[in-house]
Write a structure and sequence with these properties.
This protein has 15 helices and 16 strands. With about 425 residues, the chain is an alpha/beta fold.
């Protein structure tokens, strides 16, 4: 049987971003069936080489075309003509693909378009409604996203399929060797601090250094937290880029705020997923106070490792930290909404927590008993296994793609789409 070919527009699937990681998971799930091939436009990263890349061990079944940004009219037209894919799958903010919507009428007559939708801040979904309607189906990353979509564009076929975490990589260490590895990492982090307090709490932040992620604000507020409880009581480890044109100069800020004696540490080296799992096992809590977060993969990875989370109650994060009955960390309710805008979207709201609430939450974490911590850790692991199961995620994508191609056809037998045609009017 001839393999179906899927064209993917997303972050580079071999990049460490959450979008890139989930794209990789989806592709690998479908490749396991032996019935699909993938052509990817690997966007959102800087490239030293633009030669198409065959991903091992899949070779011809998985090829990545490096592109700047997320592509252009010319690139997509060229790839469509050369590859003749059976389905177009894309992910991340729809405003990144404004050029794609402009040529929808060139694409959809030949193949279905499927969008994996991250959460949008209100009122952006109303501006994006026409984007949603340009797809044969929209798959939603969180329950929040799905509810938004159904309210804004109810006529668009949609389904809920959340991110997942690979618990063969991200899990609570049990063996003596693994525990010792995590303990060694923890000791090294503490030794970096001037105080060398072995009883201090370690807070972890694993995110892009971007404005909405609040990297600079986190350092500032963490410093004020330490001013109140003592600079030897905790350290913050930030796994991110030290400097970013869309974020802050973090080393400068750390120095300026006088938290450069181990109170705030930067981890800037690229690490494997296994090394990242060791980090989660070495620390006490993981933080994400982003003003806008579609899902938040790092916090899910942390919970899978048994490390409780501290998050802004926005987007998919609110589904992670509680099931409505139990809490697997602390969720901080937004105290206000910031208003931002762009040429594409006049304005959107972003959820913003307060400094007071953040510091109060860190104090609670500091005082948490070992019994309550262990229970929170256990419940978090169970929550991940129950709701973000990796095997369920893989099956979900296989079923979704199969159903969409069966319903809407593909390059050779497109159905269910009415092509535009010229009419002669007398």
């Amino acid at each position: 049987m001839k393999k179906k070919k899927i064209l993917v527009l997303s972050d580079h699937p071999l990049s460490p971003s959450g979008v890139g990681t989930q794209t990789k998971y989806m592709i690998e799930a479908l490749l396991k069936t032996g019935r699909y091939q993938f052509i990817c436009l690997g966007g959102a990263v800087q490239h030293a080489d633009y030669t198409p890349q065959k991903v091992e061990p899949y070779t011809e079944d998985w090829v990545v075309y490096p592109v700047d940004g997320y592509g252009t009219h010319e690139i997509i037209r060229s790839v469509l003509q050369k590859e003749k894919p059976d389905l177009l799958w894309f992910m991340t903010d729809p405003r990144f693909y404004t050029w794609l919507w402009e040529i929808e009428n060139e694409i959809r007559p030949f193949l279905p378009m499927v969008y994996y939708h991250v959460w949008d801040n209100f009122p952006a979904p109303y501006f994006n409604a026409n984007y949603y309607k340009s797809n044969d189906e929209v798959v939603c990353i969180s329950k929040v996203t799905h509810e938004i979509l159904k309210s804004v564009a109810p006529e668009v076929p949609s389904r809920y399929l959340p991110h997942a975490v690979n618990d063969n990589v991200f899990y609570k260490f049990a063996s003596v060797e693994q525990k010792q590895n995590a303990a060694t990492i923890r000791e090294q982090l503490i030794e970096t601090s001037k105080d060398k307090n072995k009883n201090k709490k370690l807070f972890f932040w694993n995110n892009r250094n971007a404005r909405r992620k609040q990297s600079g604000t986190l350092i500032w507020w963490f410093k004020e937290f330490l001013d109140e409880v003592g600079h030897d009581k905790a350290s913050l480890i930030m796994h991110t880029d030290a400097r970013d044109p869309h974020g802050q100069d973090l080393p400068h800020l750390i120095h300026h705020l006088n938290v450069d004696e181990g109170q705030v540490l930067l981890s800037t080296n690229k690490v494997t997923a296994e090394e990242l799992a060791s980090m989660y096992n070495a620390v006490d809590f993981t933080i994400n106070i982003s003003d806008a977060e579609g899902f938040g993969l790092a916090t899910l990875e942390s919970m899978s490792c048994g490390t409780p989370i501290i998050v802004n109650m926005t987007g998919g994060l609110q589904e992670q930290v509680t099931d409505g009955k139990n809490w697997f960390g602390w969720g901080i309710q937004p105290a206000s909404k910031s208003v931002i805008g762009s040429l594409q979207v006049p304005y959107i709201y972003e959820d913003r927590i307060s400094k007071k609430d953040f510091i109060s939450t860190l104090k609670k974490a500091l005082k948490l008993s070992s019994t309550k911590y262990d229970n929170m850790s256990k419940l978090g692991i169970e929550h991940v296994k129950r709701n973000y199961n990796f095997e369920k995620y893989e099956k979900g994508w296989v079923d979704t793609i199969d159903e969409i191609i069966e319903k809407h056809g593909s390059w050779e037998n497109r159905v269910g789409y009415k092509r535009w045609h010229l009419m002669e009017v007398a």
